[in-house]
Amino acid sequence: MLHRSIKRNHTVNKKSAQIHELIFLTLTVRSIESSRSEPEMEVVVDSTPQTSSFATENQSSVTAIVVRLIKESLSSILTRFHAGYFRISLSLGGQALLWKTLIGPTDDRSTLRDVLHMLHPTAFLVLWSFALFTLVLLSLLYILRCLFYFKMVKAEFLHHVGVNYLFAPWISWLLLLQSAPFVSPKTTCYLVLWWFFAVPVVALDVKLYGQWFTKGKKFLSTVANPTSQISVIGNLVGAQAAANMGWKESAVCLFSLGMVHYLVLLVTLYQRFSGSDRLPAMLRPVFFLFFAAPSVASLAWESITGAFDTGSKMLFFLSLFLFTSLVCRPALFRRSMRRFNVAWWAYSFPLTVLALASTEYAEEVKGSIAHILMLLLLALSVLVSLGLTVFTLLNTKMLLPDNDPIAASLHHLPTVSA
Predict the structure, then answer these.
(1) How far apart are CA 353 and CA 137, in angstroms?
(2) Structural domain contains residue 54
(3) Which of 226, 341, 338, 218 is nearest to 277 (CA)?
(4) How far apart are the C-alpha atoms of 296 and 258, rounded to whole Å?
């Protein structure tokens, strides 16, 4: 019985094992079929939005950096820029007027004038356009300075040198107006532009000349320096432009206003009162303004009278004497010539108006000595202007130095109204 019981248990265990194996196989088959019937899931990682967002943020940061650099650069330019940079436009405007006179109609039949008349008018047009572009650029910069740094402009008005260069933009525009190839002096456009440029000169006259004899700290004996003659030149250039369009009375008014103050100023500068000699060595080239004023006066008087008469000749000889006196003293300018700066442009305009006056003198007297003098001054004027243009283009990084005597002093002046 024991043997039968063991055999029966073995049979049951074997059948139980077969049943378990059958169940396992059934579940395996169903699992395989279920996995085949279900769709496969595909996982796709899309990195496009992240890449696009990163590129946008990068582009925005680059734009912000560029804008910030532009603002910092413009701020640096405007804080160092001042009206003294209009020396450049003064020189170029004077050159444009000189060459318009040389290629214009004349009674002088000398060989030199015949050669100059052979020059193509396009060369003069290029020169005038370049002078106009320079003046427009400088004017835009100064307008921005007035808008964003008006306190510095007010401080410039209180500066004994800087205030005189506030005349320079208007003088430059008057010179370009007289030399314009497409505006006749008899037109309404010329008249309107003359008023627009001459009125600020008279307004500055009232303010500046009134200070010379009414305010103790602004007495002429304490603030006079060679740049003070720019105010005189402004009146004389305005008189010349008025005479060209036939306004004789206005021309005589401006001429008398300029000449009376020129005589007072010349005597004051000759006497060299204590406290008046406050001109930095870097600004020594402005001494050439000593002969610029009588040169412009001779041209203005010629425009008023219609001839280069005795009065114009006397003023021309005075300017020629002052020019010779300065040329014979090169040590006076030695320190200012050690390194290029924008003050060098103060050499060009006086030489240009002296050459222009010599041209009118040579046309009047028609002598060989006068023509030789004209040739020498003309060559010197052109060479100096051309050399300064080349130096400026090659040394653009030195146009706004940290040691500019005018710009540096403006940061230490009070900004109250004068």
Answers:
(1) 23
(2) no
(3) 226
(4) 11
Q: Which domain holds residue 340?
A: 73-410
Show the tokens assigned to 44.
Answer: 């796709």
Is the separation of the CB atoms in 106 and 374 below 8 Å? no
Q: How many domains does the chain have?
A: 1
Residue 391 · residue 344 · CB < 8 Å: yes
The region, left, alpha or beta by phi > 0 then psi within -120 to 50, assigned to residue 280 is beta
| CATH code, domain carrying 139 | 1.50.10.150
Q: Which ranges in 286-367 belong to alpha helices (H)?
A: 289-305, 310-327, 348-365
175 burial level (CB within 10 Å; 0-12, 13-18, 19+): buried
Give a yes or no: residue 210 inside a domain: yes
- Between CA 165 and CA 238 the distance in angstroms is 16
What is the distance, to the nearest Å, from the Cα of residue 172 to the centroid of all Cα atoms in its chain?
12
pLDDT under 70: residue ranges of the chain: 1-55, 57-58, 105-120, 215-217, 273-278, 402-403, 405, 407-418
- At residue 278, the 3 state secondary structure works out as coil
Give residue 266's identity as a one-letter amino acid code: L
Q: Which residue has the tokens 């100023």?
A: 265
Q: What is the pLDDT of residues 134-170, one digit of tens each?
A: 999 999 999 999 999 888 888 888 888 889 999 999 9
Residue 223 lies in a domain: yes
Q: pLDDT at position 361, please?
A: 93
Q: What are phi and psi of 270, to 5 degrees?
A: -70, -35
Residue 60 within a domain: no
Count the Cβ atoms, other than its own, within 10 Å of residue 286.
26
Please give the radius of gyration of the chain, using alpha carbons only, rounded to the nearest integer: 41
How many angstroms separate the Cα of 22 from the Cα of each of 10, 14, 26, 201, 379?
A: 18, 12, 6, 116, 120
C-beta of residue 175 within 8 angstroms of C-beta of residue 134: no
Instruction: Report d(CA 375, CA 20) in Å as an integer.
Output: 126
Six-digit token pair at 25? 């196989």
Contact in structure between 288 and 350 (CB atoms under 8 Å): yes
